[in-house]
Give the backbone structure.
Amino acid sequence: MGRWAQARKRGGGQQMPTSAPPFTIPPPVLDDDWEITSSGAATQAHSLDTCPAGSDGMEFQRRLDSSGPFASDTPGACTGVVTVGGICTIGLSYELRARWTLGGVPVSDWGNAGPVVCAF
């Protein structure tokens, strides 16, 4: 018996990493569950409905144009308006995306991103 087989037999050795369990709630749908606006030089997300069972909030991210990484993790409630990413640059285009959370922990994947042009 080789040393790797012996190590596995004793409970050691290399093990395959396990993946995270799949999300059980589908991601929020733009224009059904939430929408995007821009007002006062800020990009905003508006929740349009209550949270689905198994979640108690949302998380939003923003990026400039459709390139680069998403950033500006912004928590939000299942109802109301939240400013995502702080002040935006007037005339530039941004993308926002959302996902469901429970106690601040993601319980869905990110939904499709939607565009918005920063306006005052």
In short: DSSP finds one helix and eight strands in the chain.
